[in-house]
Amino acid sequence: MNNDHYNIDKDTNSYNNLEGQFSWRSPSNIALVKYWGKKAVQLPLNPSISFTLNHAHTTTSVSYQKRPSSNDWLTFRFEGKEETFFGKRVQSFLESLTDIFPFIELLQFEIDSENSFPHSSGIASSASSMSAIALCLCSIEEVISNQKQNKEEFLKKASFVARLGSGSACRSVYPSLAIWGNAKDITLSDDHIAIPHQDYAPIYQDYHDDIIIISGEKKSVSSTAGHKLMDSNPFADTRYEQARNNLQHLLVALKNGDLDKFIDTVEEEALTLHALMMCSRPSYTLMKPNTLAAIERIRDYRLRKHVPIAFTLDAGPNIHVLYPHQYVSEVKDFIKEELMPLTESNQIIEDQVGPGPIKLS
User: Fold this and answer.
1) Which stretches of 257-319 are DSSP H helices?
2) Residue 168 resides in a domain
3) 173 and 212 part of one domain
4) CA–CA separation, 282 vs 54, rounded Å?
5) Among 269, 44, 25, 59, which residue's Cα sits nearest to residue 179?
């Protein structure tokens, strides 16, 4: 799959309505089987699968009009204030998309973005923000080219575009669960786009993910640099094979509602991600002492109370606590009593599996 897949109309003279605004709210996601290591232009070296979150989202509005002769064609504001650092990343992202969206060179943009969650909170803000921008661009294209796509094709293109901004963003355009990367026996799985995954037991439909903020400090290594370290990691090939196998195990657990297998696989994935960082060169320890303490308390609680509670982590110290909705009352009590004392400033973000992006205008 490449840009030609989208039948791009290079004739910019055919565009109309070169002024307007679109707004999308797009969620973050939490990977259950992790993507860690990439090749070429944002292509994964192993397949991954994620829960799409509900309350953790980015709301982005893109206003556009015909570009004047000025070189100053993009204004990016985050939560009402002009933000130059991420704005430069967004500008580079848009400049990289002119083969897909030739209209970008004709327009000037004002982009306003806000998150429902704080920075450095263990939630992938690049996934929600880049997917929201991608969805806005696909909406703009429909209007100015007067070529409406069906929902499936629209989301496929949004996934393709979002991936170019942030790999994991390609999964955020779908509800509930999404798979990204070529995977054995999974029809239509692809390195260039994510696909929705719908073959799962009802217990996962409203699964909870409560995020325990152990530390709000900026992590010591960026995700981009972390992926790059896999190029020289001595365990890289073994890891990619493990991820492919774990995806197959998890798909069975999702289909059958096998919570024991789900827990074993998800926790192994989380710990493997951090082990890879610890044995890279240079090495990084992203967990904090309270991260390990939280893991021990979660495991102990699971054994004592026979409650199917699990943990996962992104590339940082904060814990995602995963559990079925039917256990919400007792798990909330456990989190309050045993995990909250481990947090920074009593920060806990309560979330669960959600319906995917929402077009606001």
Assistant:
1) 259-278, 289-305
2) yes
3) no
4) 36
5) 44
